[in-house]
Structures
1.
Amino acid sequence: MRISRNTFDRPWAAFMFFTRLPLWRLHQPRKESYDSVVEWWPLVGWLTGGVMAAVLWWGSMVLPWTVTVLLAIVARLLLTGALHEDGLADFIDGFGGGGTDRQRILDIMKDSHIGTYGVLGLVVYIGLLFAALHSMSPQLAALTVLAADPYAKMLAGQVIQMMPYARTAQTAKAHTVYRRMSTTSALLLAVQGLLPMVIYLWYFSDFVEWEFVIFLPCLAMYFIYRLMWSRLRGYTGDCCGALFLLTELMVYLAVVYQTCRL
């Protein structure tokens, strides 16, 4: 049976949307493929987490650990074009400076300029990310990133099932409104996000308690979801990016907390 190139349009569109790799030179997906990129977001995490893990693993063999951790963070920033970090900064700016005014929050998040709240938020986030990874051994840090990246993207992707998009396609930054997932797509999303995490928890079962690693990010996701619902009654692309980074950070903090107890 012949497989059409269009069969791979949706995952291909996700890799094009969430990274800065010049994949458009090889194949240009159909326009409608971009409304389902969230369904393949954790798969992109296999790549972005894999690149970061590779830098942590191999870099630690030739460079000081501090330099290696910084290079790993920079590597993912370059690969994604700081897409999610931009979303986090806009999210913090909007919810920090917009008060309870829904339209003002949306306007602030759409503004291309970064404000004081956004700058401070990014500084705190990068500081905590660096400190968490730096406190782990190279092997633990690399494998934790490999599991945390897809898992956090799977959790963040749930938001499109939980609430409507807060803008229209015309007013959205990327001019794309993500479609709600079918049962099949939701199961596929779960497999992409959970498979690396299950393997990780099995490998480190001697000292990493799965309850902390699984439920602390879920708890963070729930509180952010409640904040978004109370202020916006919906989500935006910036909200998705912020959800990913903050839930991923919770995985690292959960692992660090458990390693400190040993």
2.
Amino acid sequence: MSLRVESLSVHFGRTQILDDVSDLEARPGELTALIGPNGAGKSTLLKAIAGIEKSTGHISLDDTALDTLDIAQRAGRIYYLPQDITSRAALSVFEAVLLARRTTHQSDRQQDLKRVQHTLQTLELEQYAERDLGQLSGGQRQRVAIAQAVVREPRVLMLDEPTSALDLHHQLQVLEWLVALAREQQMIIVIAIHDLSLAARFSRHMWLMGAGGIVRAVGAPEAVLTEERLREVYAIKAHVEWPDGEPPRVTPLAATRQLGAQGTGQDF
């Protein structure tokens, strides 16, 4: 099973956001990191793959063309979690995660309850199980949203900046869990992430996007994250280290020039 993207383009009116994105593959059992500067089209790419954003091109899963499926069929295979999470539902944390589980599974209720409890425990949310969603901090709400996503057990899970509101402890915890989840359930997981050191440490595969919605590189982190490529795509001088037995490190040293078209600060 693999997810493949070929000749994918997206336009907002006359503005082209993604330009003939091709040769992207994400494999089961691995975490794929989607990286690139603001405005490169990372969020749009995830939405297009999930069927939320209208696109042209070819997206396939298990050799099945996803554009031939209706919305419900596609949603049953791919789940997209946006970066900005808002909820006004008057639910407790436990109720919210259980509801997410029940919308996609009709298994035994006791099995669902056990699955929800395990998910909350793994994300250190057990102590908040009876607390209303509106009483949570931003980071806590983000962890609940991640719990709601993974408890559905989609075949493909797409997360847009899942660690952006988390402290360092919970960033590592969530990423370690996602890696284990992908491996144990042979799930395809793709995350958009800005922290290149974390991306290099936890992903097995990378998609690097640059200005104009163009994919600049795909492959293993050590092949994608070169100092020359970071200078070209991010307009920074950086030092990249791959020490034996230690996590990789990407250290930005200086900006080299303006980002131009990709420096609008708008994340499509």
